[in-house]
Amino acid sequence: MAIREILEVPDPRLKTVSTRVESFDDELKALVADMFETMYDANGIGLAAIQVGIPKRLLVIDLQPEDEDAEPEPCDHDGHHHHHQPTKREPRVFVNPEILDPAEETGTYQEGCLSVPDIYADVDRPKTCRVRWQDLDGNVHEEEMDGLMAVCIQHEMDHLEGVLFIDHLSRLKRTMALKKLEKLRKAA
Ligand code: GNR
Ligand code: NI
């Protein structure tokens, strides 16, 4: 397992339209393991493969927030202190995901993106959607998504089309967001 580098704007690779996963092999499982490690290290709740430079229709999500006040895990008797470990992880893998019937009703959520660090902006999206996807063995699943899961999976699926959340903003707001990012980078 390895933490991979997360691509950031204006890297042109983030505009790639990703291609379907055809091989459900060990290489895919190794990539997914790296994606989880990279996402947890960056404190993200989702990650698309293109964000680590792999143009495949693959994403991982874990909505569980890290819980600083969590009780130590019962198995933590080896004396090691596990920093930034959430109490309970809910890792989910979506291979070749498709949105079937987005709700007409939209909701607004303040989104962020690991590829647009430290920038947050309100984005409107369908409140719920049905998602069909494959798991790591190629089996097909379908589920109705709502709440933060609906927001996150739509954000991740945009990445598969080369779209970032700032692309949903007005030109003025997008320009302001990118200028702010430049300023933060120069200050760092
Ligand atoms: O970590 C992330 N948080 C987040 C917050 C609101 C809406 C979407 C997201 S996804 C983001 C991680 C990321 O960039 N995934 O592509
Ligand atoms: Ni993102």
Written description of the protein model:
This protein is an alpha+beta fold and 188 residues long. It has one domain (12-64, 87-187): Peptide Deformylase, CATH 3.90.45. The chain is built from three helices and seven strands, in the order αβββββββαα. It has helices spanning 26-41, 147-160, 171-187, and strands spanning 46-48, 58-61, 92-99, 106-113, 116-126, 129-134, 140-145. The strands form two sheets. Strands 1-2-3-6-7 form a five-stranded antiparallel β-sheet, sandwiched between helices. A two-stranded antiparallel ribbon has the order 4-5. The radius of gyration is 17 Å and the shape is globular. The two termini are 29 Å apart. The relative contact order is 0.18. Mean pLDDT is 92; it is low at 73-80. The protein binds ligand GNR and nickel (II) ion.
Features:
Peptide Deformylase, 24% strand, alpha+beta, binds nickel (II) ion, globular, binds ligand GNR
* Low-pLDDT sequence parts: 73-80
The average pLDDT is 92
What is the tally of helical segments? 3
Biggest β-sheet: strands ordered side by side in the sheet: 1-2-3-6-7
- Give the N-terminus to C-terminus distance in angstroms: 29 Å
**CATH C-level name:** Alpha Beta
- DSSP summary, beta strand count: 7
